[in-house]
Specification:
Bound molecules: iron/sulfur cluster
CATH superfamily of the largest domain: Aldolase class I
CATH class of the largest domain: Alpha Beta
Distance between the termini: 43 Å
Order of helices and strands: HHHEEEEEHEHEHEHEHHHEHEHEH
Structural class: alpha/beta
Strand content: 15-25%
CATH topology of the largest domain: TIM Barrel
Radius of gyration: 21 Å
Number of domains: 2
Strand order of the largest sheet: 1-2-3-4-7-8-9-10-11-12
Helix content: 25-40%
């Protein structure tokens, strides 16, 4: 609940309004794991909150640490469903990659989460709880959040948006909108809704192909929202918010790194407020796609740069523990794999 909703609920239940600010601070500033820790509340109010199962608490079942410093957490919910959350420490920054769904219905051909299908939506509380748990493991506060873990954030639009409202609230964490990235496979109506909010978030589009035939093969959502709909929606987003749109493009050897792919990408991205992130594909066991070599990536990046499009070549973190983009979703079975290997 937002502070005003919390206040209305507490007042209707016979408690003074000012308690709402205290409770909100305990949850979103202190990050308590139990209502018993809310030490400036009367015992009776703490019991009331407990009786209403007020806090959503998950538990970290396992942590896999990569040799590059990142870690993947397997977080279990009371209904025994699990999600994965990734901790990415980078000097003074601590970025967290959050999940928004258990599984995913989008079925992208290169993605481990998509392979497993959709189980359920996460609530905004479960999204925020990932932040609390990851911070307690990392023992430092998060500076950046990326909604890029398991699931399609914009297919869980209301809960995703609510979690951001709560994380951004000045009485709580007060995490700046510019420090939050939402990644989507390209749900056009939701991109438009997001743009209408006018928030200063970073919008990242998982593009991965600049031709409709190939994109529809890699990302089935493209059949519903082809590039002729997606790109204008992104341009409107940039216009509505004044924010540069980021495109993610995982280079897959022999699939999307050819001359005509570079030309098609140039045609889509030239001349407007956007930026391209090139990443090597992160391989998923059982899927036929392989990453490009570093020299192939550099060559592709040079072609795009020559067309005047800002490009960054990014390294993927957490590959050795299947924590990199596209590799999440192993769940408990994936954990078993790590134990055995
Ligand atoms: S890439 Fe994202 S949207 Fe596509 S299947 Fe994987 S989690 Fe879902």
């Amino acid at each position: 609940m937002l502070p005003q909703e919390l206040a209305a609920w507490l007042v209707a239940s016979g408690y003074p309004k000012y308690r709402a600010k205290q409770v909100f601070g305990w949850i979103h500033k202190t990050g308590v794991s139990s209502t018993d820790e809310m030490s400036n509340l009367p015992r009776e109010l703490r019991s009331f909150l407990k009786d209403h199962s007020f806090l959503t608490i998950g538990s970290v079942e396992t942590q896999h640490k990569s040799k590059d410093g990142s870690s993947k957490l397997l977080i279990a919910w009371p209904d025994d469903q699990v999600v994965e959350t990734v901790i990415l420490p980078q000097r003074e920054r601590l970025s967290l990659c959050l999940s928004t769904q258990v599984g995913c219905a989008m079925g992208c051909a290169f993605c481990a989460t998509g392979k497993g299908g959709f189980e359920r939506q996460l609530t905004s509380s479960e999204i925020i709880e990932q932040v609390r748990l990851a911070e307690s493991v990392a023992q430092r506060p998060a500076t950046n959040l990326v909604y890029m873990g398991m699931g399609e954030p914009l297919a869980n639009f209301d809960q995703t948006i609510r979690s951001i409202e709560l994380l951004n609230h000045p009485q709580g964490r007060n995490l700046g909108m510019r420090h939050i990235t939402i990644s989507t496979c390209g749900l056009v109506p939701q991109i438009e809704r997001l743009g209408e909010l006018g928030w200063q978030l970073v919008l990242a589009i998982s593009l991965h192909a600049a031709r409709d035939d190939l994109r529809s093969e890699l990302m089935p959502i493209n059949k519903k929202y082809p590039l002729a709909k997606l790109i204008p929606a992104c341009k409107r987003y940039a216009k509505d918010t004044g924010r540069r749109v980021t495109f993610e493009y995982a280079l897959i050897a022999g699939v999307n790194n050819g001359e005509r792919d570079a030309r098609a990408l140039g045609n889509l991205l030239q001349g407007w407020l956007c930026h391209l992130n090139l990443i090597p594909l992160n391989p998923v066991p059982g899927l036929p796609y392989r990453p490009c070599s570093p020299s192939e990536i550099r060559e592709f990046a040079n072609k795009i740069e020559r067309m005047g499009i800002p490009v960054t070549v990014r390294a993927s973190l957490g590959q050795d523990v299947a924590a990199a983009c596209g590799q999440l979703g192993g769940g408990r079975a994936g954990d078993e794999h790590f134990r055995k290997n």
